[in-house]
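Lab notebook, bench 4. The sequencing result for the construct came back, and we need a structural model before the next group meeting so we can plan mutations. Quick request posted to the team channel:

Model the 3D structure of this chain.
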Amino acid sequence: MNNPLLEEHHLPPFNAIDIKHIKPAIEARIEQVWSVLNTQLAAIDQGEKASWENIVAPFEEASDLLSQSWSPVSHLNGVQNSDELREVYTECIQLLTDFGTAIDQHQPLFKAYESLAMSEGFSALSTAKQKVIQDALRDFRLAGVALAEDKKERYGELQKRLSTLSMTFSNNVLDATQDWFMHFETQDNLQGLPEGALASAEQAAAQKQLTGYVITLDIPSYMAVITYADDRALRKKIYTAYATRATTGEWDNTPLIKEILSLRYELAQLLGFKSYADLSLATKMAESTEQVEGFLRLLAEKSLPVAQKDLQELKDFAASEHSVNDLQAWDVSYYSEKLRQRDYAVSQEELKPYFPAERVMEGMFAVVNKLFGITIERVESVDVYHKDVRFFSIKKDGEIRAYFYFDIYARDKKRGGAWMADCRTRRLREGKIQLPVAYLTCNFTPPVGGKPSLLTHQEVTTLFHEFGHGLHHMLTQMTEAAISGISGVAWDAVELPSQFLENWCWEKDVIPMISGHYKTGEPLPDDLLEKMLAAKNFQSGMQMVRQLEFSLFDFLLHAQYSDANPVDPQDILDSVRKEVAVMEPPAFNKFQNSFSHIFAGGYAAGYYSYKWAEVLSADAFSLFEEQGIFDQKTGESFLNTVLSNGGSKEPMELFKAFRGREPKTDALLRHGGIV
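Done. Here's the predicted structure in C-alpha cell form:
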C-alpha cells in the first residue's frame, strides 16, 4: 500500500483486509501475547523482581498489537455488516473471550502485579502507573482470580455464553430493523412528510430497485413518519413495527433476555456479589444500589409534576384543536410537533435547512478551537472503508495530537445509533508517542437529489455529543494504554465530556457558527433562533421521565433478579412505568427486546450513567456560564483536568480539580427547565 501516514501511525489498511485472514491474524496476535507473558514470567520465576519494565510494559505492548488487529474488524462489523464478516466476527469473539478470561484469571500474572504493588519500587512509579496496577489488581479479583479451579472454569463458560448472547441480541435487532419496510407507489399515504423525507424514501425505493417510495425502521425514516405523517394508521403501523422489533420468529430476543439475566446473576454470585447491579457498581463512581435508586427517584420526584403538566397540555391541544380525544403512543410525536409549532412557531423541519451537516461540522470544529486551542484539518489519501468516510487530524500548538474517522450517514448494513470507538490508544511505544485515533459514527440522512445532508437540531446535539466522547479519547496526555483516553474511566463518568459539549449547541453566540442556510449560507435568523431557544425545554419533563424509566428499569431489573426471584422484565417495566411514566405505552410495546444498550452493550445496570454524568456535565458547564462560554482559562482547565487525565485519577478528584467542589444537581434541573 505504501501509505506513509498509514504505516507511521499504524492505521488500519481497510481495503487490504481479507475476511479469510482475520481469524488467523487474531490467533497469531493472541499467541504473541502468551509468548511475551511466558517469557517475562519465566524470568520472574528465576528470581528477577517484578517491575513495570519487565511485566507491565511488555504485556501492554503485546496487548496493544492485538487491539490494533481487532479494532478495524470490530468496527467493520458495526458499519459494514455482512454474513461472511459476521461469521468470522463471531468466531473471533469466542477466541477473544476465552483469551480475556484466561488472562484475567492467570495466577502467575496476578502474583507478579501483586508483588509489584507491594514492592519498594511501587512508590517510585508515577501516579498514573500506580493506578494502572491498582485497577488491574481490582479487575483480576473481579474476574475470579481467587476462585477454585472449577469455579474459574464456570466463570469462563459464563463469559463465553454471555458474549455470544450479546452478539446474537445485537444481530437480531439489526436484522429485524433492516427486514421491515413499506412500499408506496405514490405519495398519497405519505401526506405531511417533509420534502427531504420524501426524497430519502424515493432514494430508498430506488436502492431496492422499486418505483415510488420506501419507508424503513432506520431512525431518519422512522422519525420522519412518526413525527410528520398525517395518516394516523400509517403512524400506528410503523410505531408497532418499531416497538415490536426482535419479538417474534428467528429474531426473537425474549429467550435471550431471560438467559442473559440468569447468567449475569450467576456470575455475580460466583464473585460474591448479591446481584449483578452490585457487581456493576464495583467499577463505578456510585457507591451502592441504594444510592443509585435514590438518585433516580429524586430526579423523578422533581420531574414528574412537570411531565404530567406537559402531557395534559398535549392532550388538551390534541382534543381542542384536532378533535383527538384518545391520544395514543403513535400520536405523541405528531401532535407534539404541531404544538411546538403553535406555541413557538418553529419546527425541526423549518430549522433543518440552516443546519447542513458540513456547516455544522465546520462550526463544531471552530467551537472546540475556541475552547481548547485545537485545530482540525482534513487529511486526504487515507485508506477508508466507505466513500462517505472522512479522516481528520487534530493539532494543538502546531503539533498533531490525534486523528479520527468521521462516518455520519445512515446506510444499509450499518448498525443504528451513534457512537465513538477507539481505533488506536495514546501510549508510549518504543520511545515514541503512539497518537490516539477514534472512530466517530452517526446515522444521519445522507445527501439526496443534489441536496446536502440537513440535520435537525437534535441531530446537531448528537454530533456534538459523540465528538465530546472523541475529544476525551483523543486529547488525553496519558502514555499508559490502560488509563489513556476513556480507558479506565468509571462508566458513570464517561458521559461527562460528551454531554458537556452538547451545551454549546444552545448558545446564542454559537448558533451562527454552526448554522448557515444550505442555499444562501445565511445564519439562522434571529427570530428563528429566539423561537428555538424558547422551545429548548419544550416537554422537558416528559423527556426526563422517559430517560428515568429506562434507567430505573435497567437498574431494578439487575438489582432484583435472582434464581429465587427470576423477575419478569415486563413486570419490572410495568411497575417502573406506573412509578415514573406519565403515558404508558400499549401492551404490545416490547422495547426491552431492542434495548441493545443493556443487553448487547456496556450499560447493564449502568444506564443511569447518562443522568449521573449529566449532573456532572451541567455543573461543569455552569462554570462557563459564570466565566464566559469561551473563556480560555476555563477551557484550558477542563482540558487539563477532565480530558487530559483519562482514567489516571478518580472522576470525583478530577471534577473537583476543575469545579473546586463536589457536583450539585441544581444546574441540571435548571438547564432542563425542571426548576
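The chain has 27 helices and nine strands.
Will bring this to the meeting.
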